[in-house]
Write a structure and sequence with these properties.
Elements: H1 2-5, H2 7-30, H3 35-69, H4 74-81, E1 90-91, E2 94-95, H5 104-129
Antiparallel strand pairs: 1-2
Helix pairs in contact: 2-3, 3-5
Length: about 130
């Protein structure tokens, strides 16, 4: 389980490294900036790409984790998120995120709310049994 939580970090680092190298070469060769300014601009791009990629990796992992935890079908995911069932294909018992990445935050938020409600229901049921 711990190896999977490293995915967003590794994905972010690789993306940041590629973004840094690309921005550095663009600044040096295309815009003919000096090395110090180019490294500064490339570092800003690297930070931006790291944050963006980390969020995407984290959101993907969390959406899939919650869907697997509750064994949610495509119909149930569509009902929870208000989207279409065809947006959540499940192949080989794994959720495939084919929806645009701009919708991942919305889906993640709604699934986290669903997860909180399910935990609250379990806690209420345990209190009743005691």
């Amino acid at each position: 389980m711990k190896v999977r939580t490293l995915f967003p970090v590794i994905y972010g680092v690789i993306s940041a490294l590629i973004g840094f190298i690309a921005a550095l070469f663009i600044c040096l060769r295309t815009f003919k900036l000096n090395l110090t300014v180019s490294v500064g601009i490339a570092a800003i791009f690297a930070i931006f790409f790291y944050v963006l990629s980390y969020f995407r990796g984290h959101a993907s992992y969390e959406i899939k984790r919650i869907a697997a935890k509750y064994h949610l079908t495509d119909q149930e995911l569509a009902q929870i998120t208000g989207m279409q069932a065809s947006d959540f294909p499940i192949y080989n018992n794994k959720l495939q995120l084919i929806i645009p990445k701009r919708h991942w935050a919305k889906v993640l938020y709604q699934l986290q709310e669903y997860d909180k409600k399910q935990i609250e229901l379990k806690n209420k049921e345990r209190r009743r049994q005691q």
